[in-house]
Design brief:
Distance between the termini: 36 Å
Number of strands: 5
Number of helices: 13
Shape: globular
CATH superfamily of the largest domain: HUPs
Largest sheet: 3 strands, parallel
Bound molecules: adenosine monophosphate, tryptophan
CATH topology of the largest domain: Rossmann fold
Strand content: 5-15%
Helix content: 40-55%
CATH architecture of the largest domain: 3-Layer(aba) Sandwich
Number of domains: 2
Strand order of the largest sheet: 1-2-3
Oligomer: single chain
């Protein structure tokens, strides 16, 4: 069975966009692959986070992932910082990557744009090396990521090949996969923009753990257009098209089927149906989330995973250390 690995940075609350675009894909793929999913908490440190807040978000993500259907029978769910070997390997990779290639990472360029060099952490610059370590340490075959992260998976491929050429076959060269079944979900108030967790307070973004009635209101007041026919036209009807994408994803039907269903409906009726689906999803996730928190189940899972991932990672790091010639 091929091994799949992906990580999520605990830098904000998880949104409906994360669920439809990523999380749900993991849940679907976990039976096809030996799946490793982790909370990339060390990656959050590239910028300052309130420590108490960060800890809370890490635990929340674990519980939400379990609530959304990641099943410990198929998926090894763990927290990156609880496996210290990631940073050991990151150092080796840092010493085999170059300032030039790291300077070309578009995420770094975006995130450091307009900032004074004295205000950019070295971690922000080298984090793709840590990400490569996250991937290579487990011999991952496939890495599902959003388009914005594809360049980093390509760096991981390059680093694996470079290391293998220099020191002998050590790392598997991973393939990025961009999940295609998940629609991209847009901001409800500004449907040209991706629905994003960094827009936490906005009326355009639905959080998986938010009050369901507040989520319903956000759908009901989503921006539409002056026509009153429900059909998909991303260019001229971005708001309605976004709601159609949300509805069809949650119902597991095609956009055409959704269009058909609402061809006689006005916007109010249509939105009510979308809101009902979103409320149903959130209620279900939140009920399971509360069960997970109350049961102490998450800690047990994390402990089991931890033993497993450390053993795998230790072996890989010892091999890499030995290949480069450090130690006795
Ligand atoms: P991010 O929250 O941007 O770190 O992304 C985590 C994962 O969720 C990535 O795989 C993204 O592609 C996916 N994702 C985030 N926001 C959306 C969105 N609005 N629509 C679809 N997928 C999303
Ligand atoms: N850097 C990714 C992000 O910002 C998260 C991440 C860290 C990751 N390590 C990874 C994703 C390894 C896939 C594989 O979203």
């Amino acid at each position: 069975m091929k091994r799949l690995l992906s990580g999520v940075k605990p830098t904000g609350e998880l949104t409906l966009g994360n669920y439809i675009g990523a999380l749900r894909q993991f849940v679907e793929m976990q039976k096809e692959y030996e799946t490793f999913v982790f909370v990339a908490d060390l990656h959050a440190l590239t910028v300052y986070n309130d420590p108490t807040e960060l800890k809370r978000r890490i635990k929340d993500i674990v519980a939400v992932y379990l609530a959304c259907g990641l099943d410990p029978k198929y998926t090894t769910l763990f927290i990156q910082s609880e496996n210290m070997y990631h940073t050991n390997l990151a150092w080796i990779l840092e010493c085999n990557s170059y300032m030039g290639e790291m300077s070309r990472m578009t995420q770094f360029k975006d995130k450091s744009k307009g900032k004074n060099n004295e205000a950019i952490s070295c971690g922000l610059f080298t984090y793709p090396d840590l990400m490569a370590a996250d991937i290579l340490i487990y011999d991952a075959d496939v890495v599902p990521v959003g388009v914005d992260q594809k360049q980093h998976v390509e760096l991981a491929r390059n680093l694996a090949e470079r290391f293998n050429n220099k020191y002998g076959e050590t790392f598997k060269v991973p393939e990025p996969i961009i999940p295609s079944s998940g629609a991209k979900i847009y901001d409800l108030q500004n449907p040209e923009k991706k629905m994003s967790k960094t827009e936490n307070s906005s009326k355009g973004c639905i959080m998986l753990l938010e009050d369901v009635e507040s989520a319903r209101k956000k759908i009901m007041s989503a921006v539409t257009d002056s026509e009153s026919k429900v059909y998909y036209d991303k260019e001229n009807k971005p708001g309605i098209s976004n709601l159609l994408a949300i509805y069809s994803s949650l119902k597991g039907i095609s956009i055409e089927e959704a269009e058909n269903k609402f061809k006689e409906s006005n916007y109010g009726e249509f939105k009510r149906c979308v809101a009902d689906e979103v409320v149903k999803l959130l209620t279900d996730i939140q009920n399971k989330y509360n069960e997970v928190l109350e049961s102490g189940f998450a800690d047990k899972i994390l402990d089991d995973s931890n033993a497993k991932v450390r053993a795998i990672a230790q072996k890989k790091v010892e091999e890499a250390f030995s290949k480069v010639g450090v130690g006795r």
